Amino acid sequence: MQCLYCYGKSCEDFGKDFNEFDLDYSLPSSIAYQTESLLAFLKGASADSTVIFYGGEPLLAQDKLKEMMDALPDRKFVLQTNGTLLDQLNSAYVNRFESIFVSLDGNETLTDQYRGAGTYRKVMSNLKAIRETGYSGEIVARMTVAEATEIDIQVLDLIRNPLISSVHWQLDALFWQNDYPKRQFAKWVREDYNPRIRSLIENWVDHMRTDGEVWTIYPFNGICLSLLTNQPTNLRCGAGWFVFNIQTDGHITPCPVMAGMKDYYVGDIMKDSPRTLRKVPVTEPCTSCDILTVCGGRCLYANVTKRWGTAGFDEVCQTVRNLVEGLTEAMPEIRRLLQSQEISLEAFKSPSYNGCEVIP
Predict the structure, then answer these.
(1) Backbone angles phi, psi at 326, to 5 degrees
(2) By CB distance 3.0 to 4.6 Å, which of 184, 227, 253, 274 could disulfide with 258?
């Protein structure tokens, strides 16, 4: 895979200054610790904790994946994958995953534009195959969203697909330094993305009204549940306080994107316990924001690095504010549908801390 927004931009960013951060460029390309070390580490975790296989592409290391799953028979598992190798993993293992996050950016045209010709059909064929061989868990379409994405059209295309259980997305923003000057991100947000988010909210609520069903669109469901229950949130993906990334060398960081950032090593599976890992909260400007208790801080990596500078960071924040405002405006109708029992509060709930970025 040579996805335009990931592989392509990482190549363009080679050699860019990473400010004051001390980076470890010597991390092994594959897991260097023994499975027994992971088992010993997880003995200190709560019984209902979840192991998420992430990458790179975890299905390139199926022997290691199966070894770990066999060694942890009582754990819950989540897989984040590009989906192209799902047909090569035995159904006995596939069917053990609570959720499978699959990289799909929308319809066939858009997904293939971003990820390569034939990707969409290959992934959809594999999803159909695992359903036919007994997979009954959640299939999450995990979108990456950039200027070519018509967010309302693409989300609706995915959520209406019977193979897909739920949808979420993350903006292609604040990861790289080199791409920002080349883009008109603020203009796209103002003229396309934000208006289409409002349109998508209208479609989501209209579907509740006409079909009595709450589509699981993670950014919408998660925020609305907080508004309905008046419950404040920490960083919604869990990074740095509830979810942690085990690097290939056994060091632990708050999330996979922060791999190699030595200042943010919070522990080591050889020496530490899940209960003693150092917590890493978001800092300013998030901690002074008036919607922090709903947003949670969006992204710890972006908060720490600010790869686009203050102006670019603020542009992304406007997308979150638009999202929260749009859902807040929809709350009277959602509350009416709840009161009339056309929908239920339970329908807004989703698995917690499975690595999903509820705030895009």
Answers:
(1) -60, -40
(2) 253
